[in-house]
Write a structure and sequence with these properties.
About 35% of the residues lie in helices and about 15% in strands. The chain has about 240 residues and is of the alpha/beta class. Helix 6 (about 190-205) links the parallel strand 8 and strand 9 (about 210). Keywords: Hydrolase.
Length: about 240
């Protein structure tokens, strides 16, 4: 359980030691909408270490209409930021997976048995469109499972088309999908409705992991401003378990 300290009138420093692992970020420069330079990568890793993370698994977008990233491009970038972090004297461990947009290219990768970069336990981080619901979301997630992976749905609280029938979240979990909430969704950063849905999913016990989804240093700096609602003490996440897998 998180042992964050809260003050109703004044934010205190957030310490994420009990989470330990951040499994969703965009730290490799120049390959998606995340950081642009290696210096920014190091700054963000230093901030993650300061917050208490012992490991970061960065997850560049693989979205074939926009970011045609492959395991080679991602792992090459990973080697660069690992070296830069080491040279900067950082102790935080860095690894890479990917955030796969569910599109025809991704389904083709599954069908053809192409290499997919995964989180521990053969989990694959996936995202859905923000504006228009996929007609076959449930079937595609089941197909991921059929292919031997465990789907982790990134930031489900941000898919507003599910709001009219939130029972869909439990159906996805019952089907074998795990849900990852963005840490900043626990504030009003993405808006009040996203915040309310994040709280709803927590209260329903449907969230497995929390992640920063950090694209820039500002996102990490804002984490301290989420430190005001004592209800967060009531919930725990399984990030720590992935450190052992």
């Amino acid at each position: 359980m998180l042992n964050w300290l809260f003050n109703k009138n004044k934010s205190k420093e957030v310490h994420l030691d009990h989470i330990g692992l951040d499994l969703h970020s965009h730290l490799i420069p120049g390959i998606d909408d995340g950081v642009e330079t290696i210096e920014q990568s190091v700054e963000m890793l230093a901030k993650m270490q300061e917050l208490g993370f012992r490991k970061a698994i960065t997850t560049p977008h693989v979205m074939w209409d926009m970011y045609k990233n492959t395991p080679d491009t991602i792992l090459h970038g990973l080697a660069d930021i690992r070296l830069a972090a080491k040279n900067a004297g950082l102790t935080i461990e860095v690894d890479a997976a990917a955030e796969y947009f569910i599109d025809e290219h991704f389904v083709g990768m599954l069908t053809n048995g192409e290499k997919i970069l995964t989180l521990p336990g053969n989990r694959v981080l996936v995202e859905l469109p923000y504006s228009t619901q996929l007609m076959n979301t449930s079937e595609t997630l089941f197909y991921i499972i059929e292919k031997g992976y465990r789907p982790v749905l990134a930031h489900p609280e941000r898919y507003t088309y599910f709001y009219s029938d939130p029972s869909v979240y439990k159906k996805l979990c019952d089907q074998g999908c795990e849900l990852q909430v963005n840490l900043l969704s626990l504030s009003s950063y993405y808006g009040d409705n996203v915040h309310k849905m994040a709280v709803y999913l927590l209260k329903q016990g449907l969230i497995t992991y929390i992640g920063t989804d950090a694209h820039r240093l500002q996102h990490l700096d804002l984490i301290n401003k989420t430190n005001k609602d004592g209800w967060l003490d009531k919930y725990s996440f399984q990030n720590q378990k992935l450190l052992e897998e």
